[in-house]
Amino acid sequence: ASIGNFLRRSLRRAGRREGKDGASAAENTPPQVSQGKLGERSSVFCSAGQFFFEYLVVVSLKKMPDGRYEPKITYQFPKRENLLKGQKEEEERLLQAIPLFCFPDGSNWVPVTEFTSETFSFVLTNVDGSRKIGYCRRLLPSGRGVRLPEVFCIISCLGCFGLFSKILDEVEKRRQISMAVIYPFMQGLRESPFPAPGKTVTIKSFIPESGTELIELTRPVDAHLEHVEFQALLQRLSPHLILHIFASAMLERRLIFLAEELSVLSQCIHAVAALLYPFTWAHTYIPVVPECLLDTVCCPTPFMVGIQMRHLQRVLEQPMEEALIVDLCEGKIIQAVGDEEEILPGKLQNEMLVSLNRHNNNNNVHTSEQVNALVSEAFVHFFVRLVGHYASHIKWGRSGSGSFQERAFCKAITSKSCRRFVKKFVKTNMFSLFIEEAEKSRIPQEGNG
């Protein structure tokens, strides 16, 4: 209970702007994209040239006197010294939170001889609103006899799941040889600048008996799709259900996703959040909820969370307000509000269904990157059709500051069903935040009235 309270205090932050219902951005938020023209590609977290990562930590399970297992950090690289008081407190908060997100499944573990390694990620939001991603590889250390899995977790402010998965492949390969072989590889990575979109960085790494290896790490061309795997969503849910989820997310409702595998939860929830691009989910966002934070589902404000299937009964027993509960194992909705079919304008919804079904039928043809681009394009096109005229309804003052004319913006929509939907959408936090950025984005020009 005490660690749960600590996490809530250390991860919670005030929203940049309170919503109309008083809701605020909270504990975990997905990658923030800078806003430009609607549909414009933009960078996810930090620019090229940053450090690849802040820390590599190893989280192991330690047996407690009562027989339970508790996750503890057993290795940290690099060790940071001479930190200022504020930095030290932030580091302590971070290092105390990481183990729970590396082993969110609770304390019921038994040593095993076989374990299929899995990759997943989580997002932590600091008190000041800055974000860090934890990229995790849970694996069984090499050896004989029964043993417990451990997690290698890379903490970075950079959002690029595919690239960090490849780094974790290299970490796992070295772990099977010796922990000592991991350090020089991570040191080489830390000394290399993060590449620009579409560029490659080459890391030299020596492995005993194999010699020096050259590891090439290439960043995708489209930076906003770096943290996304739409294929994971399309493989588990029908296009029809994906649109129900998308519609609920657009109205900032409560969304709960269920699966047993941590990788499925984190991949699918990141994908749902990415469907909203160029808008950003601005509320509680926890792709894998640690067992001690399951009461998050009692929160009256919007949230998007992932919960392991074994906790379904506990979730259903919570005093919960209306929520959409999605079973990613069976590809079905367990609980709905009931109006999901009617939220989106009919004509646009049908066009998107046709587009998603086309991608679904060609799954064996397209690469992961192609699926990402095609799916993203369909959803961006939806937003362009619906609200793409927003820029012409920002009134600019002489000082260069803009003022969005909401009434005229809605009135300009000729379709009644589209106008009805947009009148709800403009009241959301994500639209307010997008417009706030747009109102600031014009460079003041001489004589502009």
Automatic annotation (TrEMBL):
Residues 54-445 form the UDENN domain. Residues 26-35 have a biased composition (Polar residues). Residues 9-37 are annotated as: Disordered. SMART domains: dDENN (SM00801), DENN (SM00799), uDENN (SM00800). InterPro entries: cDENN_dom (IPR001194), dDENN_dom (IPR005112), DENN_C (IPR043153), DENN_domain_containing_2 (IPR051942), Tripartite_DENN (IPR037516), uDENN_dom (IPR005113). GO terms for molecular function: guanyl-nucleotide exchange factor activity. GO terms for cellular component: cytosol; nucleoplasm. Keywords: Guanine-nucleotide releasing factor. It comes from the Eukaryota. Gene3D superfamilies: 3.30.450.200, 3.40.50.11500. This is DEN2D protein. It comes from Certhia brachydactyla (short-toed tree-creeper). The gene is Dennd2d.
